Amino acid sequence: MYLLYTILAALFCFLILKWMKRRRYCMDIKRLDGKTVLITGGNSGVGKETAVALALRGARVIIACRDEDKARKALREITARSHNMNVLYMRVDLANMRSIREFSKTFLQKEKRLDILINNAGVPGILDWTDDNFSMCFGVNHLGHFLLTNLLLPRLRESSPSRVITLTCSSYRYQKLDFQDLNYNLLPFFTYCRSKLANIYFTQELARIMEGKGVTAYAVHPGYVQSSWTCHYSFLFQLLMKVIMFTFFVPCEAGAQTVVHCAVADEVTAHNGGYFSDCRPGSLRIFAKDAGVSKKLWEASERLVKLV
């Protein structure tokens, strides 16, 4: 009898884990021939799997990241898996505003189209500072992509209808923004949560500003994925998280599905400025839908990155 109970308990746990890791896959088969896609952080994790998926659909895919060696390795893998030779790498350091400006200038000079911009790159909750003295999470996850998107908006508008997809996280719900301390850098997890909330506000305000101009915007929660973000932490923490991620988190390929869905599906345009999870529109907490806060953050961000 004890053995039977053990087997039933094990089966129950297995089914619960399978249920927790279930994910919808993007079923839209639209091709992207002739389209140009830019993916920040496309050399690893969800970004790389997104690059493979969109390259398979015929897109010209440009991955933008800081580490050239990792990017070259990723390019070989993306090309081999997609059989698409039109995959390129361009260097940008999202922790450096000068690098973002130089990248954008080069991109606008070389690339005549930008149909889909995927703001994928990000850092976890680490207590560090960017080259411009912003907290690393806020500086990279929000301000870096804010500046990049604004500088590339002319090309996005020229290529309309175009889309901007920004990766966020459901952990946004655990914090609110403090406009007296946007550069908050005290508790790593809360710092990360605030940056992910900023991604949502950014998407909403971008959608409002671009209304009727051919550019739509979407915030995507890819789920909790088995990515390499733990590399910023100690060996013991990495070991612990590998066990947790293997048990509870989904593979990066599954995590990329909602990003791909927002990149190709026609139905998402009815939810401009919306938040997506598991290939469908998701619900947000009331405070994360405040248009006044979205506008205030946009204006504050413009001043911080010196766009005004």
TrEMBL record:
Keyword entries, A-Z: Oxidoreductase
MF (Gene Ontology): oxidoreductase activity
Domain of life: Eukaryota
Coiled coil stretches, renumbered: none
Family label: Belongs to the short-chain dehydrogenases/reductases (SDR) family.
Protein's name according to its UniProt entry: Uncharacterized protein
Protein's organism: Electrophorus electricus
Lineage, top ranks: Eukaryota, Metazoa, Chordata, Craniata, Vertebrata
Gene from which the chain derives: si:dkey-174n20.1
